[in-house]
Amino acid sequence: MPKLWNETIDAHRRGVTDxxxxxxxxxxxxxxxxxxxxxxxxxxxxxxxxxxxKYFPDVETILRTWHTRRIDAHLGELVAVRDGAGTxxxxxxxxxxxxxxxxxxxxxxxxxxxxxLHPDDQIINAHNQLRDLIGQLIEEAAAAGExxxxxxxxxxxxxxxxxxxxxxxxxxxxxxxxxxAVTAAGLRAR
Length: 190
What we know:
The protein has 9 helices and no strands. The protein is an all-alpha fold. Helix 5 runs antiparallel to helix 7, helix 7 packs across helix 8 and helix 8 (153-164) packs antiparallel against helix 9 (173-185).
């Protein structure tokens, strides 16, 4: 097959996959995990059921795939923030703020949906990557004399992640900003 034809087919498949993932996530947020059917997904995505089943066997697989995409996007955002300009301490504050806003987005979601998506090995891997990302910034900032050195960076990174998980319960950006400020204050050199 010509290269252009292959690229066209791949683009079409990506478009259909994106439509399926987005439709399923929207339905799950509207109706809850157990309220979504494959027929509803096909209708919302604008495709036939037979086509849907060529891509995914069930709603759970679609949601796990959607979640994988979201995790990868969030980690990519946080890596971009980490790699930005500024001191290690300033970049750490930016990463903590970005992470807190990501955590805030999870608040209010259907509890069954959250429980379904979060015991996944992928979450554990993403959490470990995030802890390492934050730990490296803490280590760099501590070496520059900007943060405390009396506690290992890995422990401080875990502290940050646990503290900022409370952002999921915050309704306002101001509340999230206060939470980030309190968390960051716990990292400062005495």
